[in-house]
Amino acid sequence: MQPATSLKRTPFTEFHRAAGAKLVEFAGFEMPVRYTGDVREHLAVRNAAGLFDITHMGEFEVRGAGASAWLDRMVTNHVGAIAVGQALYSPMCRPDGGIVDDLLVYRYDDHFMVVVNAANMAKDFAWLDAHRPADVTLVDRSAETALLAVQGPRAADIVRGHVPAAALDLGYYRFLTGELFGVPATISRTGYTGEDGFELYFAPAHGATVWQGLVDAGVPQGLELVGLGARDTLRLEMGYMLYGNDIDDTTSPLEAGLGWTVKLAKGDFHGRDVLVRQKAEGLRRKLVGFQLDGRRVPRHGMAIVSEGRPVGHVTSGTFSPSLERPIGMGYVEAPLAKVGTALEVQAGSTSLPARVTARPFHTRGSHRS
Amino acid sequence: MGYPDDVRYTKDHEWARQENGLLTVGITSYATDQLGDVVFVELPEKGRQIEAGGAFGVVEAVKTVSDLYAPVAGEVVEVNSALGDNPALVNQEPYGEGWMIRIRPADPSSFGALLSHVDYEKLVEEQHA
């Protein structure tokens, strides 16, 4: 099984291969989709801890006197409101309210780091660069940045002693810079799983040191290697967005239920006019979560039907290992978005009864707010 | 990786084992590796007539779904009801307890036309090239 030579690798690719991972192409990278099994890896993160290679994510460095004000014109959440050492989740909108990407903004003492989805790296960089004023510099640091996530209720115990003590006191969406297994790193209490944990940014040259350190410290605590398969089921149980599935250039953050990240009062930003109007006029469609009985799984693109009429489509679906039942998300006509509404998902010639459910689906995660 | 030599194969990654004039059918370890954890298997009713290459069921995994294709034409004489409670058998023992249906072939010689383990291994390697 030879990888196509054009795929980008991470500092951890050989560790994945040695661990028996099934490697697949994802956004131009050769990435592990699973090591032992999606369900086992998923439950390891819920019950103990998991180690994820997410080096494929993109990192942009933003500097300059106008950086904060400019980022606030580019994204919908309020960058100006966060302190040094804080991270912020935000959609970045087009003028028509569609979402270019969803991303994280980190405020360091003298610059920002913007972390974007791998599949959108080139698009985001071009978009940002095209709107960049003269007093801001934008540099793509993706190739110089390795990124691992340790997620799960044991995550803090695993990194204890290998990170500055202050890292263990970080609140959710807080970060610091310091030594990680003796190498310089950004240690961030963030994640995409609903569990406590850390996302760790460092230079690729230190990949082996950090990987081996985490494995050695973690395996006795129940740490498992986790692939993109379980990363998706973990995020979906939390109702977190996957760009390209649940949100894209044609969906607005309000439709997606991301109203909490849209700060209309902060001043003007791309998409604000449209979002103000959507809010005033009411939304035509909304993203909902739903659960199904039985074991047939809703899949991206399937039609959602109400009383024999198509009313939307599935954006994400999976079999939830924690709930042991199928779950999904999708856009439906706004009047059908109320929790408890009965819908049907069209799976080929079969109609699967579904019921609108509050998100997150999984409410027992260990992350601290 | 090796594939068992006591069964024959289809290009759609099903296997069939001949016993007492019946064919036991399941999916290969290559298929289960591609699918990941199986969470549900939809199987036909006993007595249904199926066509060679026709879809006879559905296998749902956490990440993906796939149709099941009949290796030969015939009548479904038994289905593996154990998969209802324990679909993970398909991952754990794809050539054993994870079997799916038994078929009485319409043409007893149709089994011989399926792929040998050598040809199947070659096919899998080619799909990866």
Q: What topology does this entry show?
A:
The complex is a heterodimer of chains A (369) and B (129).
Chain A: H1 13-18, E1 22-26, E2 29-34, H2 38-47, E3 49-53, E4 58-63, H3 67-74, E5 87-93, E6 99-107, E7 112-116, H4 121-130, E8 137-140, E9 146-151, H5 155-159, E10 175-180, E11 183-188, E12 197-202, H6 207-218, E13 223-225, H7 228-237, H8 272-281, E14 285-292, E15 303-306, E16 309-320, E17 325-333, E18 342-347, E19 350-357
Parallel strand pairs in A: 3-13
Antiparallel strand pairs in A: 1-2, 3-9, 4-7, 4-8, 5-6, 6-7, 9-12, 10-11, 11-12, 14-17, 14-19, 15-16, 15-18, 16-17, 18-19
Helix pairs in contact in A: 2-7
Chain B: E1 8-9, E2 14-19, E3 22-27, H1 29-35, E4 38-42, E5 49-50, E6 55-61, E7 65-69, E8 74-79, H2 82-85, H3 89-92, E9 101-105, H4 117-128
Antiparallel strand pairs in B: 1-2, 2-3, 3-9, 4-6, 5-8, 6-7, 8-9
Tell me what you see in this structure.
The complex is a heterodimer of chains A (369) and B (129). Chain A has 369 residues and is an alpha+beta fold. Chain A folds into three domains: 13-54 and 145-236, 2-Layer Sandwich (Gyrase A, domain 2), CATH 3.30.1360; 58-141, Aminomethyltransferase beta-barrel domains (Alpha-Beta Plaits, 2-Layer Sandwich); 284-360, Aminomethyltransferase beta-barrel domains (Elongation Factor Tu (Ef-tu), domain 3, Beta Barrel), CATH 2.40.30.110. Helices cover 19% and strands 33% of the residues of chain A. Chain A has helices at residues 13-18, 38-47, 67-74, 121-130, 155-159, 207-218, 228-237, 272-281, and strands spanning 22-26, 29-34, 49-53, 58-63, 87-93, 99-107, 112-116, 137-140, 146-151, 175-180, 183-188, 197-202, 223-225, 285-292, 303-306, 309-320, 325-333, 342-347, 350-357. In chain A, the strands form four sheets. A six-stranded mixed β-sheet of chain A has the order 10-11-12-9-3-13, with helices on both faces. Chain A has a six-stranded antiparallel β-barrel with strand order 14-17-16-15-18-19. In chain A, helix 2 (38-47) packs across helix 7 (228-237). Chain A is globular and about 60 Å long. The mean pLDDT of chain A is 96. By secondary structure, chain B is α+β, with helices and mostly antiparallel strands. Chain B has one domain (8-128): OB fold (Dihydrolipoamide Acetyltransferase, E2P). Chain B has four helices and nine strands. In chain B, strands 1-2-3-9-8-5 form a six-stranded antiparallel β-sheet. In chain B, strands 4-6-7 form a three-stranded antiparallel β-sheet. Chain B starts with 7 loop residues before the first strand and ends with a helix. Classes of the chains: A alpha+beta (369), B alpha+beta (129). At the A-B interface, helix 2 and helix 7 of A face strand 4 and strand 6 of B.
